[in-house]
Design goal:
alpha/beta; 2 domains; six-stranded parallel β-sheet
């Protein structure tokens, strides 16, 4: 029976080997977005990680899970988004029945004792890290890498957890050594500035419904406005062209009239000069 349980747990764990540097990235991923992928790739590059495991949790104890998408749906969405040979998506927490991060990491370390794990989190999570169950224990289990976010990065390091773990912080230039360090140790990575948020996307999903339109109403109204403005612009261009044509035709008419008048005038003057010449000749005789 114990052997069967061991085999099942080994199947649950993504590919690994002794000495590998693996990042653990946990969350509800409802929905997963490009900022999640960007944080994973940044940590993979800067820390020279062999793999990154996305731990899709059944629910976050600190957040309202009402309206949360089903676990399998979130796992499928995360796999579709990542599509990376070195990123593994797993929902093992639901199977091993762990609710808190500390218990999940402890379970993994017990079964992969020679793997060098690093916990990956966003700067927004560091801000509320002191509210996590046994957060100090987590910091003692594995090194932590914090990826900056647009907004929270400004005050994340000054949070309660950031101040409590300030002595364990290493310079960003030494972040590559983080998987080899003994916990507690953490580093802050800059370079990723994204305003994307799963909370905001969930709120948008609730507002628009499960199948939001591909183009929002605002875009349609803006398109309608742009069409109206383009029509009015084309009309104004047409009226301007017609006015210009009318003006040119009027100018031509005026020029032709002036030319005719001038020709008539010169004709009259010529006749007068001829009569004058004739009268002069008669007088001379």
């Amino acid at each position: 029976m114990k052997r069967l349980r061991k085999l099942r747990s080994e199947r649950l764990i993504p590919p690994h080997a002794p000495g590998m540097r693996i990042g653990l990235f946990g969350g509800t991923f409802d929905p997963p977005h490009m900022a999640h992928l960007g944080a994973s790739l940044l940590a993979m590059k800067r820390l020279k990680l062999d793999r990154v495991w996305w731990l899709v949790t059944p629910g976050n104890p600190l957040k309202n899970t009402r309206g949360l998408a089903p676990l399998q749906q979130r796992i499928a969405a995360a796999k579709a988004l990542t599509h990376h040979p070195r990123i593994d998506v797993t929902g093992l927490e639901a199977i091993i029945n762990t609710r808190y991060t500390y218990d999940t990491i402890s379970w993994l370390k017990a079964r992969c004792p020679r793997v060098r794990f690093v916990w990956i989190m966003g700067a927004d999570n560091l801000r509320s890290f002191h509210r996590w169950q046994n957060w100090r224990g987590i910091a003692k289990l594995v090194p932590i890498v914090v990826v900056d976010r647009l907004g929270p990065s400004l005050y994340a390091a000054a949070s309660a957890a950031g101040q409590a773990l300030s002595r364990a912080r290493i310079p960003e230039n030494d972040a590559v050594t983080l998987p080899d360090r003994k916990a507690p140790a953490w580093a802050f990575l800059h370079g990723l500035k994204s305003a994307l948020s799963s909370t905001a996307l969930r709120a948008l999903r609730r507002k628009d419904g499960p199948e939001p339109p591909t183009r929002p109403d605002s875009a349609k109204t803006s398109d309608a406005k742009s069409k109206k403005t383009s029509k009015s612009k084309s009309k104004s261009k047409d009226t301007a062209k017609s006015a210009a044509k009318k003006g040119k035709s009027k100018a031509r008419r005026r020029q032709s009239k002036a030319g005719k008048a001038a020709a008539a005038k010169t004709g009259r003057n010529g006749k007068k000069s001829k009569t004058c010449n004739k009268s002069g000749k008669k007088r001379a005789k």
